[in-house]
Amino acid sequence: MNEREAVEIQPSKQGEGRALNGGGTAQLLTPIAMRVLVVEDDLALQEAIVDTLELADFSVLAAASAEQALDLLAEQSVDMVISDVNMGAMDGHQLLVAIKQRWPFIPVLLITAFATIDRSVSAIQSGAVDYLVKPFEPATLINLVAKYTIGTCLLYTSDAADEGLGVDLGG
User: Fold this and answer.
1) What's the sign of the alpha-carbon dihedral 43, 44, 49, 55?
2) Phi then psi for 52, rounded to 5 degrees?
3) CA 109, 63, 67, 71 torsion: positive or negative?
4) Which residue from 1, 4, 121, 152 puts its CA 20 to 30 A from 36's CA?
5) Residue 163 and residue 157 in contact, taking contact as beta carbons nearer than 8 Å
6) Structural contact between residues 84 and 43, judged by C-beta atoms closer than 8 angstroms
7) In Å, what is the CA distance from 148 to each residue of 64, 78, 100, 109?
């Protein structure tokens, strides 16, 4: 396929696109950016999570509350939601239940600085894909998001994921 040929992009399985050249053969292209919604009321931590995911080539939307997240979900599709647990009027557990009622196939990852075994078990039973305790390494977040959006685990190491990020994902 030369540079002047028109390329038709066709979605195949989630996270991939295929280009069909004139002969009808497919060539694998760069994965399509998965869209992640980050729900975090601590704006500094929200920015750090958003930056980390964007540096790993994810497309990111952000909400400062569960209510704002539900409004965004009603308007835009996402491949995953990452939500803090301790927020304002509606917490992350309540948001998880609301998401699972309306959009049962969206993976939801809860993050918290105040984890208890009971709350963790409850979150998983309610449909959370994981329960991540702050502080966590950027590589851990990236690998979990990749696992639940792309379906594979990227081989990021802490050093590789932290290199040049300058972000603190602690709470």
Assistant:
1) positive
2) -60, -45
3) negative
4) 121
5) no
6) no
7) 22, 12, 15, 9
What is the C-alpha separation between 39 and 120, in angstroms, rounded?
18
pTM score > 0.85 for this model?
Answer: no
What span, in angstroms and rounded, lies between the C-alpha atoms of 36 and 12? 20
Please provide residue 13's backbone torsions phi and psi, each rounded to the nearest 5 degrees.
-80, 165
Structure tokens at 44: 């500094």
Instruction: Provide the residue-wise pLDDT of the chain in tens; the chain has 171 residues.
Output: 333 333 332 333 344 433 333 444 333 333 567 899 999 999 999 999 999 999 999 999 999 999 999 999 999 999 999 999 999 899 999 999 999 999 999 999 999 988 788 888 888 899 999 999 989 999 999 999 999 987 644 444 444 444 444 445 555
